[in-house]
Amino acid sequence: MTRTLRVIGIGPGGIRQVTLEAVDAMQGVDAFFVLDKGAASAPLRDVRRQMCDEHIGPGNYRFVEIADPPRDRDPDDYDAEVRRWHDARSAAIEDALLAELPDGGVGAILVWGDPGLYDSTLRITDAIAARGRVDLSVEVVAGVTSASALTAAHRILANRIGEPIHITTGRRLASTPAGADTNQFVMLDADCAFLRTAAPDDHIFWGAYLGTPDEITVAGTVAEVGETIRTTRAAARERHGWIMDIYLLRTP
Questions:
Q1: How many CB atoms lie within 10 A of CB 16?
Q2: Which residues are 136's β-sheet partners?
Q3: Comparing 72-86, 120-134, 189-203, which segment has the lowest mean pLDDT?
Q4: Which residues form the Tetrapyrrole methylase domain (predicted)?
């Protein structure tokens, strides 16, 4: 029989950012599958449990924790290493689905933000379905994106009239194509690449833990607040044990 896997977007971290559609999808799930990165990811597992307690009820759900395969964070060939890591992840999740989810059962993966924006889960489910060991039906529930949470927190529009929007990562910020740098949402920037690549008079709108009681926002030119963002980010990560942040970089 077909197993169903629901890939559910849960927003940037706030319990109330979970949509009504996502709450409905969380009901009747036999097991929630969570990649376990060890002690470093414990706070993120706790947030997921808080969401399930809030929207399903304590004791009414089951978590299956899967050891996340190791990853080289500084490889010679970044793309090849990510593909290898995704293959290892898909194999681990596939084994867990076969072991922990009965035929006809419903599983779920809770994805930060939206499953369609800089997340690997749907690539992994595609790989599992393609191998054919699991007869798998995948359902996707959209989530609040960190980009929309950021603009709401700063009470701004993502772009000025008629301007394009570019979404990228910190690692690729330096290679932004010409003409695409007017309004850039930048994710996954642990190294604060804007300090090296942005112009001093570029405006930056930064936010972390968006929509949660721990929300932090900083805005100004890179020259004015760039170093403040770097030190604030480092202190927040040390304090909480994790951080999810994003910023909008805008040319004058």
A1: 10
A2: 3
A3: 72-86
A4: 5-225
